[in-house]
Amino acid sequence: AWLDDEHLHGELRSDSPQQHRFRVVEENHRFESHGAEYYRCNEIWRESLAADGTVLGRELLLENRALVMYEPSESDAVVRSSTREGE
Question: In the predicted model, is pLDDT for residue 74 greater than 70?
Answer without folding.
Answer: yes
